[in-house]
Design goal:
Blueprint (H helix, E strand, L loop, with lengths): L2 H17 L4 H8 L3 H13 L15 H11 L3 E5 L5 H19 L4 E5 L4 H9 L8 E6 L7 H18 L2 E3 L10 H8 L2 H7 L7 E4 L2 E2 L4 H6 L5 H9 L2 E5 L2 E4 L8 H4 L6 H5 L3 E5 L6 H9 L5 E5 H7 L3
Parallel strand pairs: 1-10, 2-3, 2-5, 3-4, 5-9, 9-10
Antiparallel strand pairs: 6-7, 7-8
Helix pairs in contact: 1-3, 2-3, 4-15, 5-6, 6-7
């Protein structure tokens, strides 16, 4: 068969298969050629550019943007949502995406670490439907949570809801997050009930965390687990731009040592960054610097964020 005839046959088979949806076996019968030859010619049609695959992304999906953020910041995964600019709208979109992410990726065997004071994760977990089978062994509170009783109920509810949905055992942190002095915090870390929870941290396989800016969130401010103006000024002088579980870091993502840090009771910086999957749901212009720094410092390796924030992460 001459080249023109070969090309004509190749093009005809490609049209029959790709445009008309005819099976390879039916093409072989109709054209009186073998099915292996049909398969070979379809492969060659792709190699020579006669057939070209074009992926058209549905509206509201950002696959290329996600891949660029992953490559730039060394993330295992990035999920980008279309959320506009309003903080409340962004939080709702992130919560919905976070709930969906958990529904599709929790498949069994995980021990989940949970940040107590993330409004986004609270909203996400409230959306979460119970799994049909047990997908987690435990839900471990990552740092102290006892504070204002009217707000503490939200943290307790979040941990309880996630444990119920996943079939896990809830493990509550039996202490305040912030003590008045470093000595008091050190003493409390030696309490048997606190030690028991801290000893669970090496078993945690996925942490669900928020990324905070230097200005505390409304939920954290209400909780009673908050720092004074003097603490905030100390952190600012030390270069702090954001936090994960109240462990503050600078613009390069380096952990900021401070008196405030020494008064915390909960997972420390090394323990947090040792968790294999560190998933943050965070976005909005107010948090751009904190999110960028959290990625630089390896505080998270999976990010759910909004499209505007994702583009800002590529603008460095």
């Amino acid at each position: 068969m001459n080249d023109n005839a070969q090309l004509r046959l190749m093009a005809r088979i490609a049209r029959m298969y790709h445009e008309h949806g005819i099976k390879q076996s039916e093409i072989a019968d109709e054209l009186h050629v073998s099915q292996p030859r049909v398969s070979r010619l379809l492969k060659r049609a792709a190699e020579e550019g006669i057939v070209r695959t074009v992926v058209t992304l549905p509206a509201g999906t950002f696959t290329s943007l996600e891949e660029e953020v992953e490559a730039r910041h060394g993330l295992d995964e990035c999920v980008v949502v279309d959320a506009g600019e309003d903080e409340a709208t962004i939080e709702n979109a992130l919560a919905a995406a976070a709930a969906t992410y958990l529904e599709t990726t929790l498949t069994g065997g995980d021990a989940i670490g949970l940040s107590s004071w993330s409004a986004t994760w609270l909203a996400a977990i409230e959306r979460l439907q119970p799994f049909r089978t047990r997908v987690a062994s435990s839900v471990v509170q990552l740092f102290g949570g006892i504070g204002n009783p009217t707000v503490q109920v939200k943290a307790t509810r979040m941990i309880d809801l996630l444990a119920r949905a996943t079939g896990a055992v809830p493990e509550f942190f039996p202490s305040p997050a912030v003590l008045g002095t470093a000595a008091a915090a050190a003493e409390l870390r030696n309490d048997p009930s606190v030690i028991r929870v801290l000893e669970l941290l090496p078993q945690v396989t996925i942490a669900l965390v928020g990324i905070g800016s230097l200005e505390p969130s409304p939920l954290l401010r209400q909780s009673g687990n908050i720092y004074s103006d003097a603490d905030r000024e100390e952190l600012r002088r030390a270069g702090a731009v954001g936090d994960v579980c109240l462990r503050y870091f600078d613009a390069d993502g380096d952990h900021v040592n401070s008196d405030f840090d020494r008064r915390l009771v909960g997972a420390d910086a090394e323990q947090l960054r040792a968790i294999p999957r560190r998933l943050a749901a965070a976005g909005g212009q107010r948090k751009h610097a904190a999110i960028r720094a959290a990625l630089r410092g390896g505080w998270v390796n999976i990010l759910i964020t909004d499209a505007t924030t994702a583009r800002a992460l590529l603008a460095d």
